[in-house]
Design a protein that fits this description.
alpha+beta; Dipeptide-binding Protein, domain 1; Dipeptide-binding Protein, domain 3; 12-stranded mixed β-sheet; 41 strands; 24% strand; SBP_5; Extracellular solute-binding protein; peptide transmembrane transporter activity; SBP_5_dom
Length: 926
Amino acid sequence: MEAGYRSGVRLKVLAIVVILVVVAALAASYVQHTRSQGSRTVLQLSPPAPSTYSAVAGQQLSLYIPSPAGYSAEVFLGNGSSVTVRGDYLTVSYRWPGRYLIYYALMKGGRVVASTSQELIEVLVTPNVSGRLSQEVSVPVIAVSGLNGTPVFDVGQRVSVFIGYLQPPSGQNMTIYKYFLSLGNGTTIEVSPRNYTAYLDTGNYTYLRPSEDPVNVSFSEPGLYPLTLTIETLNVSSGQTFNYSYTQTVAVESRGLRFSMFKLDVDLPNPGTIVVAKNVPGGPFSFDPDIDYGNIGFEVLLNVYSTLVEYFGANTTKFIPMAAEYIPTVGNWSNVTARHLYGAISPNYTVYVFKVRPGLRAANGDPITAYDVWYSVIRDMLCAGGTPGTPGWILTQYLIPNYTPFTFVVTSPNDTQGAEEIVNAITYDNATDTVTFHLVRPVGPVAFFDALADPQGGSILDAKWLEEVGDGINFTGLYDHNLTQLAEAFYSYEQTCSEGSYNTAVQWPSGPSAGFTGPYYIAVYTPGQSVVLKPNPYWPTNITYFPRPNDTVIIEWVKDPTTAYELFASGQADIVTNLPTSYIPRLLQLESQGKAVIYSFSPSLLEWFFAFNLQVNESLLSQLNPAYHIPGWYFANPLVREAFAYAFNYTEYIDDIVGNVKYHFNFGSLYCGALVPGLDIYIPPSELTGCPTFNLTYAKQLLEESGFYNVSVYFPIVISSGDTTDYTAAQMWAAALHNIDPNINAVPMYLPQAVIEAYQVPGQNGLPIYYWYWSADYPMADDFMNGMYLEAGDYALPDGWNATYLENLSAYFNQSRVSYPGLSPSVEPEIGRWLWQEAVEYINMNNTIGVANYYDIAGNYTGAYELYRQAEQEAMSLYMYVYTIYQNALMVTKPYMHGYMGMISWQENPMWGGIDDYAYFWWVKG
């Protein structure tokens, strides 16, 4: 299994349910050594090895405690508690986020014989706050620095504890009320904010720093002390209070108990160059941000194109301005001057005005202005219906009345209404350098900023460059007020947005003359093998949070996981991605030697599944192998899909093939249904019926009832190249299917992800079953439901989910004898009835999703929840997919790779980090 994005790759070394980040590199090794010291033998211990250095609050973290037989170990967890263990593994969880110091003492006969106190391991635990709670709480921060810049102090030494918060609470009428600093020794200090009831012009209450900062403390006894800062927030309207805490462990030493941090093995090769080995053979589908919809290309787009706004760190609800100079607010709307200077949002959330940052230039030197933003959004809307599926629907759904996702707006050369709707959706003003979005219904800032922050669809292109390379949009009809002419031009341009008609200069741009508008540009692209990113020489140096990069980035899409691993292990790569889960023991060994750092985090908003194709293009299938044969309608039979779902061994998959049990590592969890934890609405499997389990007896019964039991088929189960984990899973599944029906001969087959994506064209999909994923475009339920379930969806449509097709197929089985070897004529009328019934059920599900989406975007979560639950149940009854794993995210880097501003959270946003993509301007090497 590997990491992916809406269509394509896979985080091979699958992510972990624990989520950890590092600040100290792992233990020297997992073995104990002895050395002679005079007449006695002294044990030399390796420090504890966490399964990853960054965990998630409330989730389990596995610790490896290398203690010899006959000894026990008292493990000090840095949160004020310790645990005595006998054995190699300890599972712990931390309630609050923070930085925790961990060590253990080896015990025998009730006394300490050795300890790792001078090899303290630091684990970073990240916050775990629900979307609703995030509006009411503030995540605290603590900063201390003791001996040699580490959190180690002497007994009696003054410790300056700097306290604060990441962001104020975002909810209406919320403010910070009090700070409480617990010292871990029974003492708690209360600190009040200054003037917390002061009003802002917007009507919200101000959020102020603590009145005492830093807080100076000292400790009279040695040991580990969890400094815990709790911030209490207040709703000044209701009087309700909320609180959230953060812990920083400090080590206080004396002559009898010494502390020091574990030393990293730091060796900085190739300064100024970041080398990335990615186990994703074949590279991306495109570098065109309005065409590419896969995670391999997404990573490059994230770095070479600007968006108006971007996510702030790992937060999915807070944003920072990128190409926009400011984040617009409702408060600026009433003042026209402020509206043009800073941007604004209308009080009814239907108009958004953005001030474009002055001085922006593409890598070729072209100025980037409001005109370029306007031009780019028009292009994005025009390409919204391209095939394979494109990302344009994300913005278009907010800008065009009654828009159906994944379809073109201008439906014919004389569709003047569609053309007029496009030009009415966004306007620009050169005098004020502002762009204005005119939404067709109220959309909250978080949802709309989500769409703008996505580089796939939200990227700003250089309009002058597009025209120079022959990809310009014909706006003559606009300037002449001739809608007929404009409709013809727009319709003609839409035809260039589908496979086979792309402008190759925009599909594969490279070199400093191309119109890259982000911090990097593509200097060299070797198709399917590697890409070299160099800093945009015109990128400003004064954009807060978006520094001008100094490093060249080399991304290598290597041929197999062994190559990727060896590049990393030998020091030739600084980052490795998408390794199969079977590599985790080797990675942990590197980490224990100080040669790697493993970060994991959750939620990833990344789910994996096997997709059925209900309308297999048999001609294209035979091109993969002339021996393959399967009727194109084989998987249109609902009982066949259900039988296949019950023939998959989910427990063996998660425990042994992925390896949660086998490797003592939480790579993810089984799931059921499209909606997963981390979205604004999540439907747990306990609220659904029909989630399949492994039951070969029932699977065989279903196949016999389906009428297809005796139908001989030979077909591939397609897996992304390099994904050895799921190749093994496909082998397991194929053996089970053959066991219950010898007529089924399925074989795993590797194809590059870009090739799999190219097959996702309605009527042109020759893949009967393939392993794929969905990762969030934005963290709302409608994103997942639209792409995976809707009839025009990015996945459903190319997989043959079309009500008309099913109705016609029903008539075919009802009205004629289908001549196919092994098919039972007596069952054909039943098959026709089943096909008709699933067509009706599918139409009903689509209608349910449409209403649920409306409620979700409008903020009616109660109404949306019930309808999404109904739609999920309907999808479950249709057995549209075989759901395998909701994956945790994992990053593997060298110890010298650090996050921007010392915070790895810049790389941990699930909108890209969850699928193993990185913003390289937020990596620091050295």
